[in-house]
Write a structure and sequence with these properties.
The chain is built from six helices and seven strands, in the order E-H-E-H-E-H-H-E-E-E-E-H-H. It has a seven-stranded mixed β-sheet with strand order 2-1-3-4-5-6-7. It has a single domain, classed as Maf protein (Alpha-Beta Complex). Helix 1 crosses helix 6 and helix 5 packs across helix 6. The model has no long low-confidence stretch (mean pLDDT 96). By secondary structure, it is α/β, with parallel strands linked by helices. It is globular, with a radius of gyration of 16 Å. Helix content is 36%, strand content 26%. The structure holds inosine 5'-triphosphate. Inosine 5'-triphosphate (ITT) binds next to strand 3 and helix 3.
């Protein structure tokens, strides 16, 4: 399989997945029709359900990406609700919630869900540890990138290629690629 359909409405995710997989010879095609996101505490069952749903609907192999920012001191919030929080609150209000907190540890997670029609879905998880910055830094990336500090620099300050070398998405895609290459 060299062509992969990726169901996502998020342009930033699509660009990263497309470019990371292109290097390995896969062509990623975006489909923006969406899929039902079930409510769960972990991202894996959400991605698995989504991948199964889209593969069966489109009758072709497909991937989805469910990601989230898990902030330690907030019990992992926003986690699976990251898209909702980003849209309704935004980075500035997340920083407000974090005001006065000295434990700023967080984990960014990305789960790639993959499914062949008629088969059961698989998930590939990538995670990267960091801290929540005190203010937004950098205009690169998307979403939470300007407030996610990794080794003293936010993802928003990293060059696009640099983020793609270390990100949660890159780590998840490396696992997915390893599986794909062993299968082919
Ligand atoms: P889909 O159509 O793929 O579902 P979405 O944006 O709704 O797109 P999620 O449900 O996975 O995606 O929500 C994840 C949230 O975390 C969303 O607000 C993203 O913008 C943000 N996010 C995901 N990956 C990110 C990254 O690499 N850097 C910064 N923010 C990210």
């Amino acid at each position: 399989m060299r062509k992969i359909v990726f169901v996502t409405g998020n342009k930033g995710k699509f660009r990263e997945v497309r470019d990371i997989l292109a290097v390995k010879g896969y062509e990623v095609i975006q489909n923006t029709d969406g899929y039902p996101e079930i409510q769960e505490d972990d991202l894996e069952p959400i991605a698995a359900f989504g991948a199964r749903w889209v593969a069966h609907k489109l009758e072709m192999p497909a991937i989805v990406d469910d990601s989230g920012l898990f902030i330690d001191v907030l019990g992992g919030f926003p986690g699976p609700y990251s898209a909702f929080v980003e849209k309704k609150l935004g980075n500035k209000r997340v920083l407000k919630i974090m005001e006065g907190e000295s434990d700023r540890n967080a984990v960014f997670k990305c789960v790639i869900g993959y499914c062949d029609p008629g088969s059961e879905p698989l998930t590939f998880t990538g995670a990267v540890k960091g801290t929540i910055a005190f203010e937004e830094q950098g205009a690169g990336g998307f979403g939470y990138d300007p407030i996610f500090d990794h080794n003293g620099i936010t993802f928003g300050e990293l060059k696009y290629e640099e983020k793609n070398k270390v990100s949660h998405r890159r780590r998840a895609l490396d696992k997915f690629l390893e599986w794909l290459e062993n299968r082919e």
